[in-house]
Specification:
The chain is an alpha/beta fold and 727 residues long. The chain is built from 29 helices and 19 strands. Helix 6 crosses helix 28. It starts with 13 loop residues before the first strand and ends in a 6-residue tail after the last helix.
Length: 727
Amino acid sequence: MVDSQYVLPNDIGIANLDCAEAFKLLSPEERLYAHYLSQACWYGGLVVLLQTSPEAPKIYALLSRLFRVQDPTRLGELARSLGLSDEEYQAFLVYAAGFYANMGNYKSFGDTKFVPNLPKEKLKKLVWESQAFKEHPEEMEALWGRCGDLMFSLEPTQKHLGLSGQGISTYFSGNCFMEDAKLAQKFLDSQNISAYNTRLFKTKAHGKKSYEVRLASVLSDDSKLDDELRAKMKCFEFGGCDFTVTRGDYGPLLEKVVENLQKALPHSANPTQAKMLTHYITSFTQGSITAHKEGSRCWIQDKGPIVESYIGFIESYRDPYGSRGEFEGFVAVVNKAMSAKFALLVASAEHLLEELPWPRAFEKDTFLKPDFTSLDVLTFAGSGIPAGINIPNYDDIRQTDGFKNVSLGNVLAVAYATRKEKLTFLAEEDKDLYIKWKGPSFDVQVGLHELLGHGSGKLFVQDDSGAFNFDRDAVINPETGELVRSWYRGGETWDSKFSSVASTYEECRAECVGLYLCLNKEVLRIFDLEGEDAEDVIYINWLNMVRAGLLALEFYTPESGTWRQAHMQARFVILRVLLEAGGGLVSLHRTTGADGKPDAIISLDRSKITTVGKPALESFLRKLQVLKSTADVVGGRALYEAYSAVTDDEPERFLTLRHTVLLRKEARKLFVQANTRLEGDDVVLVQYDSNAAGLIKSFRDRFPEDAEFLEQQLLKLAQVDAHFWAS
């Protein structure tokens, strides 16, 4: 029997991401704009298959061919005639739905592989008897041969994403270790090349290592190089190795992205939006992060659009080194009521920043007031859908041009809905209050986390000309009482400097800011929370955080001593900080559940949040910011990794508690997203049932005209690089 960590349960929650009301209010032009942007996102989302595992594009092609010819109902009739039980066929549908929702066979939240929860021979029999096999027997047999074993394999190095020896990653060839990733980052920094849209492939000949740094772009040759890329697309000697910069990664998929961005252009609402799309087109065509930065600047300047979107190589969570961006694209419609509350939060931001526990010199010189909107998602293409976003991630733009915050309202509405009987690790007396206030408390936490968490703090930088963005002779490090002695230099960024710990460290800092500032009554009034309601929201927000710290143990891998999810590692660190504060603030007890199996209860003394919790959080948050501002990688890593350590030491015995957490874990919900379809001059919204079959149908309908072409291109792209992971 397969370990439950590596399968999706048949009763997994599947919810519709409802945006019908928001879509109905769009004008015809806005609908066309949203439609073509959505198409660009969906095509680009297929890139994630190539960024996840060697077998993911092949599994996608297999599933696509099966369901294109026979829908889930007809295939189910065949399955039952072949002797598959209802549970076994449902397990296959859940696997396919999970694969589509995660854009690959690894969970987007936790980077753990999942496999079909039915016997391999039964699934093979279904494939062999399918209509797709009857129409193309040789192709289907060859396709199964390329992915069948890998689909089910749980070899130790295939259970999780990671660098060679620890997991699988297609951001790097299979022979790349951490030292290769570090050397490559030094090379990229030396040439001022961003890692966001790259992959790294290593070869060895005559005892010398050679690396290919491959940029994502439509163009693959040197014929139309712009001035920026001309100096970079060549061979270099660095660190005793050869580095060659090439481009053309994911070319056919990015060509479809560009084609749909071009179709969206005539329907843009204003010249700023049009400029934004033009820069994106250049970026994806050329492989230029500089062009994407220019597009991002336009995006920041496009204040309050009705249809909001962002697209590109964005989040670096799944790169084992923490520098390469996964492709992501979203299109959403503004929710005006919640956005009005966020606008009030933005208006108060400069005052609230003064409340944060670090000196003024450690804050940005000017707070560039961002857009902060609540959005109903129409399309979110990538490996998963977050609750809120603070982008762009480029440090230089964030420091000088600003950023935007978005809270994804229709995601929050369904993702965090909780049934009392499924609520784990809380005392009975906390459960009703938790269910009542979890949604409102999360709105507050997301707002503060995105706007004043990710939006706060200054990085001390010495640029290429030698100029500093702070007064070296005056700024005092509050932790040492001495002048600041370290900073970022030249092309160094937060991601490149702090690498594999950067994402989770930053999420921890933002979560701490949310907890710290939710104690401010002015903030709570913005969200219409006063009196006892406000106190309850504070309590549930803090309780939710310490509970999340316990749930986080699911995402820790004892065998390698590594964490697989940035946000959950951050929440565990916060739990450790609050436990360390003592004073009876947080209590964690091992118990036995009503089912006779191990259980645990975590509790929080609400009377001690301000007297014990706040001072502990204040001290920790100040350390996080100072170490980040001063580029103190050694100090930052030491602090963060100490709190991230999972041991079986008394009194908590976290390693033992991890088994209890795994025993009682609940799978994350999958989302069924609508499609948009052109009908004459109008665009209509096509919605689907909130079950596995509905999710599969939504993907079957997503590429009605070129599904076969996309399958072929994905298989070609996968095959060209297959030798890098052949062993």
